[in-house]
Each structure stands twice: as structure tokens, then as C-alpha cells.
Write a structure and sequence with these properties.
The protein has a domain of 54 residues: Orthogonal Bundle (Multidrug-efflux Transporter Regulator, Chain: A, Domain 2). 60% of the residues lie in helices and 12% in strands. It is built from four helices and three strands. It has a three-stranded antiparallel β-sheet. A hairpin with a 2-residue loop joins strand 2 and strand 3. It is elongated, with a radius of gyration of 22 Å. The N and C termini lie far apart (66 Å). The relative contact order is 0.12.
Amino acid sequence: MDNPFETLHSDITELKLMVAKLLSQPEEDNSEKMYSLKQASDLLGVDRQTVRNHIDRGNIKANRLGRRIFIEHKELYDSMNEIKSIKYKR
């Protein structure tokens, strides 16, 4: 009969290797990424008009290229953290 601890030990070793592999992967560089209005609304789970309202209020900084609106990755997530803190102060 096999020792049950040997199978547990091998499973734990395999998990450790998987975690080490995941941690060693470089993070995706999103500093230059730009989102359209639709992409930003899909990411945040809100309507496009909601994102547009926050842009108009100045909560989110956006760039316009012709009629299209683009939001930088950093601006989107930084402003959303601020909006969450403001949102619940009534």
C-alpha cells in the first residue's frame, strides 16, 4: 500500500512549481493602453452614458481624436478609485 503522504507531497510540489511559474511571468504593461468609450464602459460594467457623464464632469480625463473618445489606462483606474470613494458620501 502506498503512503498517502507521498501523493500529497507530490501534489504540493507540483502546486509550488505552478505558483512559482505564475509569479515569474512579467506583468502586462498597460501604461500605454487606451480604451474607447465602449471598452471602458464594458470594463466597468456601466452604460456608455455613465462614462461620458464622468468625463463631462471632469472625474475622468479623456482624449478626443476627432469624434472618438479615448481614455488612458491609468486615468481610467485612478479616477474610478476616486469616484468610488466620492460615490458613497451622500
